[in-house]
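Please decode residue identities from the backbone states below.
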């Protein structure tokens, strides 16, 4: 199933600041939210996934300093 993905910076104070939100496409034909899903799927509600998986957070950048809120 497709899922929402948040990208965040993590600071030395422990706070995370989200800088991007994306939707990851699972590329499955049986997922109604995927770009690979057929537009003319006749049994879609009974055979295809209709919802997103749980949101994921990825922290590609860890900052060696506190966030702006903690600095002020």
């Amino acid at each position: 199933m497709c899922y929402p993905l948040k990208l965040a910076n993590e600071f030395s104070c422990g706070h995370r600041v989200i800088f991007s939100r994306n939707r990851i496409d699972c590329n499955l034909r049986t997922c109604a939210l995927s770009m690979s899903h057929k537009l003319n799927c006749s049994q879609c509600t009974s055979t295809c996934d209709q919802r997103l998986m749980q949101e994921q957070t990825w922290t590609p950048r860890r900052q060696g300093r506190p966030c702006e809120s903690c600095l002020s």
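Observation: The two ends are 41 Å apart (CA to CA).
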